Fold:
Amino acid sequence: MAISKTEVIDQVKREMALANFQRINSKCFKLCVTRPGTTFTSAEKECVNQCTDRFQDAWNLISQTYMARLKRDGGAH
Amino acid sequence: MPEIDIADFSDADKADLIQFVEAEKRRATFQTAVNNYTDVCWEKCITRVNSSLSKDDKTCLSNCVERFLDSTIAVLGKLQGTAPSH
Structure:
């Protein structure tokens, strides 16, 4: 059965979301689980939760800063 | 996911898909750059997380992108200046 246009677009979006998830996961694990113990502590879980949101805040801020720079430099990069 | 064959699509869908792919390509170039800067600057600036980014975090992240780009231009200039001519 042929695949629909919407399925192609959805698949691309899923793959991009997955790549994003892997980056956030490794950054937040590195920041929050400094010394892995026998359990995933509530403090680690809370840290990972907040880290996920903050990483996206950081991405958005950097995106805006970069966009402003590109405009200022006339797209020289 | 089944094999994609462009011949299976109507002309209207083909046009939509081509437009989508072109837009995604432009977006991917920009996003790859932002992903790279976020990776570098997150490591440099963020040592702990809270309910929001602190003023210091934000200043550090913004400065980090600007300085990383300055540094990129400097390295590029240096390499181009000293590159052996073939």
